[in-house]
Design a protein that fits this description.
There is one protein chain. The chain is globular, with a radius of gyration of 13 Å. It is an alpha+beta fold. The longest helix has 15 residues. The protein has three helices and four strands. The protein has a four-stranded antiparallel beta sheet with strand order 2-3-1-4.
């Protein structure tokens, strides 16, 4: 199953490293990544593959939410079907 991960917040050192390290620990593969900094705000969108993960979607979601709280960023994950439906209107 593929999903979209979005990360938004104030730019700081190590954001990509921390998020991708957490995903790797959960056996989630990053398929594509786009990031930019806009007026000091960091934004990143990743396409990830959860097929090899032993964690459920909800467990991955909870782990990313906790990481977001720790590093003071908004980290959200959505199944690609939901993301595509929301953005096709």
């Amino acid at each position: 199953m593929n999903a979209i991960v979005t990360v938004i917040g104030k730019d700081k050192v190590g954001i990509i490293a921390k998020v991708t390290t957490k995903l790797a620990a959960l056996d989630v593969n990053v398929l594509d990544l786009s990031q930019t900094i806009m007026q000091g705000n960091f934004t990143m969108v990743m396409l990830v593959d959860l097929a090899a993960s032993k964690s459920s979607f909800e467990e991955v979601k909870d782990a990313l939410n906790e990481l977001g709280r720790e590093i003071e960023l908004s980290i959200k994950i959505q199944r690609t079907e939901i993301f595509e439906s929301m953005h096709s209107i």
